Amino acid sequence: MVCKRFFVLAFISLCAVAHLYADSDLPSGYAGITLGMSVDEVKKALADDPQFGYRGERDVSLLPGEQRTIIETDTSRLAPYSYLERCWFQFYEDKLYIITINIKKEKVDHYSIFNKLCKKYGNPQSLNPRKSEWKNDSVIMALERPLSLKYTDKAVSDSLQEKSTVQKSAEEMSRDDFLNGL
After folding, report:
1. Which residues are within 8 A (CB) of 97 and not within 5 positions of it... i.e. 6 or more apart?
2. How many CB atoms within 10 Å of residue 22?
3. CB neighbours of 43 closer than 8 A, spacing ≥ 6?
């Protein structure tokens, strides 16, 4: 009985210590491409790294009516050996604020990536069947199913989300007043 308690206490202590040694700083990108880079800087970094399968200007598009640019890469033709599939790099006001990297399920599995991220950065702050999220003051890193890794600039994302909230219409406010009066 004493031996069993010892092992339980040792395991709990090991888990607590392992979390302390996990990297507290989350990465702000992947393979030399980091959040906050300009469109031109990302284009150059993609051109210099064959694992993304970047084809040049034809991979770049501009969302109409908004100050947002998207670069989409596809490794199927130019980099079939890569661990990556399709990747998206989203910009707002010429600054990279979301990186989405889809990973080939044939080459690596979700559990291996999840396990590695937990060892490096500790347990995720948010966990559900669809995604695991690690956060700090500036970056949200999410491992999403089926198998993609997403880096988001927290400040830009929060700002865009705040701008997009629409005030209630007069009819909705009137309905709420009626319901509150019941």
Report:
1. 35, 36, 90, 91, 152, 153, 156, 157
2. 14
3. 54, 56, 60, 71
Q: Which residue has the higher pLDDT, 160 or 92?
A: 92
Total Cβ atoms within 10 A of residue 83: 13
Q: Provide the CA 25 distance to its chain's centre, in angstroms.
A: 14
Contacts of 37 (CB under 8 A, 6+ apart): 29, 45, 95, 96
Residue 167's pLDDT band (cuts 50, 70, 90): low
pLDDT of residue 66: 66
Backbone angles phi, psi at 111, to 5 degrees: -60, -40
Residue 29 reports pLDDT greater than 90: yes
Burial class (CB in 10 A: 0-12, 13-18, 19+), 54: buried
Q: How far is CA 53 from CA 64, 67, 77, 86, 93, in A?
A: 25, 25, 7, 9, 25
Q: Does 10 score more than 70 pLDDT?
A: no
Q: How many CB atoms lie within 10 A of CB 38?
A: 14
The pLDDT mean for the chain works out to 83
